[in-house]
Amino acid sequence: MSSASTADTVEPTAALGAPEQPMIRAAGLVKHYGSVRAVQDVSLEVGRGEIVGFLGPNGAGKSTTMRMLTGYLHPDAGEVQIAGHPMESEGRQARAALGYLPESTPLYSDMRVDRYLQFVGELRGLSRRARADALERVFEATDLAGYTQRKIGTLSKGYRQRVGLAQALISDPEVLILDEPTSGLDPAEIVRVRDRIVALAETKTILLSTHVLPEVEEVCRRVIILAGGRIVADGSLLDLSAGREECLLVTLVAPEAQAQVACSEIQGVMTCSVSGRGNNGRLRLQLEVSERFDVAERLSALAHDRCWPLLELRHDVPTLERVFLDCTRAGARGEGI
Amino acid sequence: MSRTLAIFKREWVAAFDSPVAYVTIGLFVLVQAGLFFFMGYPIGPVPLPSLWAGGQASLIVLFTWLPLLLAFLVPALTMGTWSEERSTGTEELLLTHPVHIREVVLGKFLASWLLVCLLVTLSILPVAWTVSGLGHLDWSTVWCGLAGAFLLGAGYVALAQVVSALSSHQLLAFLMGALVLGMLWVLRLLVDVLPVQLAALVDYACPSTHFLDSAARGVLDLRDAVYFALLVALGLILNALVVEGRRWR
User: Fold this and answer.
1) Do A231 and A273 fall within a single domain?
2) What is the ipTM of this complex?
C-alpha cells in the first residue's frame, strides 16, 4: 500500500517541475522469522518535513519494519531508501542520513554521557571540532547539560531517553526514526519529550512509533497503521475518520426492549445497541447512524411521543483510538482500509 | 579507520571499567608465576621441572603453560565482546550508525588483542627479570617467546570473538570459547595416538604447535607468522559473517 497524500500532510516541494524524492521510502518489504511472516509487503513513503505516526498493536511488525528502515535487519524482499540512498548498495550514506532511537533505548551503561556521545560522534565521522559543537548543541536540545559527567547506568529512565535522543541527533540527520520514545516515562517527561519532537519536526522528517494515541493526535499530521504485518491505513486522521459511520450516544428513561426496537426502526439508524443501564430505568444506547442531525431530530420526536424523558443526546466524534481499533480489527481479518 | 579506532577506544576503556580485567590479569600473573617457580610443567611425554627444581635460567616452563592458560583466559576477556552487545540491545544501535561490520569487528579484535598482549607481558617480564637476576637468561629467547605469545593470543582472540558473536549469554560464550580453544590444545596431546598423516595434519592445525615448537624455543619462523595471520583473518571473516548473518535472520 503506498502512502496516501492528504490535505493535511506536507507535500514534498517540487524542484524543476519534478516531485522531490521521499526521505523515507520502503517498497514491498517482507520479513519472516522462521515460518512466521512478521512483515508482509509493506510500502510507505515519508516526504521531507513530514512527521508520521507509526501505529499498530503489539506484534504488528512495527519494530521489525523500523529495523529494516534503519538497516539493522535486511528484508527478505523489498527495498529501503533513506534520503535517496538505497540501504543495500549505499548503506553507509543511508544510515548517515538518519538518527535512530530504538525501543528500550539500549545504551552502554558503563560509559559517561559525554564520552558516549563523543563515541557516537566519532562513529558518525564528525571531526573533533564538529563533535565539540554537536555535543554542545545536543546537550542544550535535550537538557542534559548538568548530567554530562554521569555514567549512563546511573541515570533515570527519563535521562537515559534524553541520551538516546541526543545520540540520534548528534550528526544532525535529516531523518529521525523513533521507536516508542516516551515508553515508560513519567507524565512530565512525556510532555518534555513530546515538545522536543514537535520542535524537531520543524526541520526534520520523523517516523514516530508509539502506543500513546493522544501523542500521535497531538504531534503527527499523518498516521500509518500496521496490523498483522501489513499496512491497514495510511493518511491524515481526518481522512481516516471520513467515511466511517457516525455514532450517537443517547441516554433516556425507557423500557429497554421497547426503546431498542423503536430506535432501531428510526430512519437512518443502522445499528442500535445498549451500552449501559442506570438507576430509575435510565438506559444508554449507542446508535450507528448515516446522518446524525436527521436521526437526532427523529429520536427526540420519538422520545417526546412516547413520553420517554431524553436525558442526553450527543455525537460521538471518531477518535484516533476508534480509528485504530477499527483498522487493526479489519487488519486482523485481512481487510485493508 | 577512524571508526575502527573509535570502536577500539570504547572497548579498551570498557575493559578497564569493570573489575573483570583487573581480576583476570592479577590471577593470571600469580598463577603463571606459581606454576613457573614451584610446579613446572607435568603434562605430556616430557615433563618440565619448576625453576627451583630444574635450576635452569629459562622461561620454557612459562611459555609451555601459555597455550593452555590462554585457552581459558582469552574467552574470559572476550566473552562479552559481542554477547553483551546482543543481550543489552546495543548491537542494534551500533550497527545502525554509518559503520561497516568489518570496522566494528576489527576494532573489537584490536582492543581485546592489546589487552591479551598487555596481560602476557605483565606475566612474563617480571618473571624474566627475576630469573635474569638469578642466572644468565637468554633475553633473545624471551623477546622471541613474547612475540610468539602475542601471535598466539591474536589467533585465540579471533576465534573466541567468533564464539562470543554466536551467543547472547556471556557465560555461555566463555564456556564455548574455552571448550573450542581447550579442544585445540588437547588435540596436540592426541597426536601420538593418531595415524601418521592425520597426526601431521592435526599437529599443523593446532595453534599451540606454531608457538611451542618455534617462538617459545627462541626461533621466529615466518611460516608460523603466516599461520597466525591466516587464523586471525579466518576468525575476523567468520565473526563478520556471523554478525551479518544475524541481520538476515
Assistant:
1) no
2) 0.86
Q: Are residues A233 and A295 in the same domain?
A: no
Residue A224 lies inside a defined structural domain of this protein: yes
pLDDT < 50 positions in chain A:
1-17, 336-337
Structural domain including A93 reads: 14-97+173-241
Residues on chain A touching B248 (C-beta within 8 angstroms): 73-74
On whether any CB of chain A is under 8 Å from the CB of B245, the answer is: no
Q: How far B170 CA sits from the closest chain A CA (Å)?
A: 16
Secondary structure (H, E, C), chain A = CCCCCCCCCCCCCEECCEECCCCEEEEEEEEEECCEEEEEEEEEEECCCCEEEEECCCCCCHHHHHHHHCCCCCCCEEEEEECCEECCCCHHHHHHCEEEECCCCCCCCCCEHHHHHHHHHHHCCCCHHHHHHHHHHHHHHCCCHHHCCCEHHHCCHHHHHHHHHHHHHCCCCCEEEEECCCCCCCHHHHHHHHHHHHHHCCCCEEEEECCCHHHHHHHCCEEEEEECCEEEEEECHHHHHCCCCEEEEEEEECCHHHHHHHHHCCCCEEEEEEEEECHHHEEEEEEEECCHHHHHHHHHHHHHHHCCCEEEEEEECCCHHHHHHHHHHHHHCCCCC
A104/B contact by beta carbon, under 8 A? yes
How far is the alpha carbon of B31 from chain A, nearest alpha carbon, in Å? 29
On chain A, the residues whose CB falls within 8 A of the CB of B21 are none
Say whether both A224 and A270 belong to one domain.
Answer: no
State residue A14's pLDDT score. Answer: 41
Q: Is residue A303 part of a domain?
A: yes
pTM of this structure: 0.82
Model pLDDT for residues A8-64, shown as the tens digit of each residue? 333 434 444 456 789 999 999 999 998 888 999 999 999 998 999 999 888 889 999
Specify whether A181 is located in the same domain as A312: no
Q: Are residues A46 and A73 in the same domain?
A: yes
